Amino acid sequence: MAGLLTLYRRMAVSLKTPEEFDKMRVAGKLASEVLEMIDPHVVAGISTGELDRICHQYIVEQQQAIPAPLNYRGFPKSVCTSINQVVCHGIPDDKRKLKNGDIINIDVTVIKEGYHGDTSKMFLVGDVPNHARRLVDITQECLYRAIELVRPGARLGDIGEVIQKHAEGNYYSIVRDYCGHGIGKVFHEDPQVLHYGRAGTGMELQEGMCFTIEPMVNAGTFKTKLKPDGWTVVTKDGRLSAQWEHTMGVTADGVEVFTARPEESF
Ligand code: MF3
Ligand code: CO
Ligand code: CO
C-alpha cells in the first residue's frame, strides 16, 4: 500500500476570472499569429536557427511580447523546432537545414501582460510521403476530437481516452512521458492533461480552467529518449513523431480555444 499516497498528488488548479480570460485570449491570439507569420518561411534550405530568429524578432518587436521558452529552465532559444523523429523540445540551430520531405513542429509560447499563450502545429516541407502526412493528419484529429469534449462536467480521462483511441485505432502510439498542462500566469501548472486514459476518470472540468492539449503521436513505439543536450526528445526507435497543441479555457457551456487560427472553427 506504500504506493497509494503517490497516486493522489494534490492538484492546485486555478480558476480564471473573465478578466483573466481576456488576457488569455490576447496571449493566445499572439501565439497563433506567430505560427501564421512563420508559415511562408518553412521551406527547404532554411535552418531552424533562422526560423527561431524570425519568430524571436516578431514576438519581441512587433508583438511587444516575451518568448516564454527563452531561458525557461535553461532552454536557449525562443521556440522549439522538432523535426521528424524529434518528439518535442527540439533546439533550433544553424546547422540543421530543412530538407524536402521533412515534417516539423514549431511550438510557440508568448507572454503578454503576464499571461501565456502556447500553441504548436506541424509544417510539411516540400513533397512529404503519404505515411508521414497521415501521421500528421491523425495527430491533428486527435487534438480536435479532444477539444470537442471540453465543457464543464467532462473529465480529464475523457480527453485522454478519445486521443488514445484515435491514435491507437490507426496503429500509432501515444507518448506517455510528456503531457498537456494548466496555463495562465504560470507556463506549466496543474492540472496535468494526459493524452491517454479512461473516460469517466480523472478531474472534472469546471468553468474557468485553462489548459493545453498537445498530443504527441508516434508512428512506432511510444517510448522516448532524451538527447545529451538535455532537451531534445526523440523516439526510441527513430521513427516519426507528430504534435499539435492549443491553449483553451472552459466556458459555462463549452470551450474557448485561445490559440485558434483563422482556418479553424471550434
Ligand atoms: N511549449 C512547450 C509546451 O508545450 C514547452 C517548451 S519548454 C521549453 O509545453 F523550455 F522547451 F521551451
Ligand atoms: Co504546452
Ligand atoms: Co507548447
Explain what this protein looks like in three dimensions:
The strands form 5 sheets. Strands 1, 2, 4 and 5 form a 4-stranded antiparallel sheet that branches. The chain has a 3-stranded antiparallel sheet with strand order 3-12-11, with no helix packed on it. Strands 6-10-13 form a 3-stranded antiparallel sheet, with helices on one face. Mean pLDDT is 96; it is low at 1-5. It is globular. It is α+β, with helices and mostly antiparallel strands and 266 residues long. The protein has helices spanning 4-7, 18-38, 48-62, 130-149, 156-169; strands at 66-67, 80-83, 86-88, 103-112, 115-124, 173-174, 180-182, 189-193, 210-213, 216-218, 224-226, 233-235, 241-243, 246-250, 255-257. The protein starts with a helix and ends in a 9-residue tail after the last strand. The chain contains 5 helices and 15 strands. Helix 2 crosses helix 3. One cobalt (II) ion is lined by residues 118, 181, 212, 214, 245.
Give a summary of the structure in a few sentences.
28% of the residues lie in helices and 24% in strands.
- The separation of the N and C termini measures 44 Å
Q: Strand-residue fraction?
A: 15-25%
Shape: globular
Number of helices: 5
SS-based class: alpha+beta
Stretches with pLDDT under 50, minimum 5 residues: 1-5
What is the helix fraction of residues, given as a range?
25-40%
Largest sheet: 4 strands, antiparallel
Task: Give the helices and strands as they follow along the chain.
Answer: HHHEEEEEHHEEEEEEEEEE
Got a strand count? 15
List the ions, cofactors and other small molecules found in this model: 2-amino-4-trifluoromethylsulfanyl-butyric acid, cobalt (II) ion
- Rounded mean pLDDT is 96
Gyration radius over CA: 18 Å
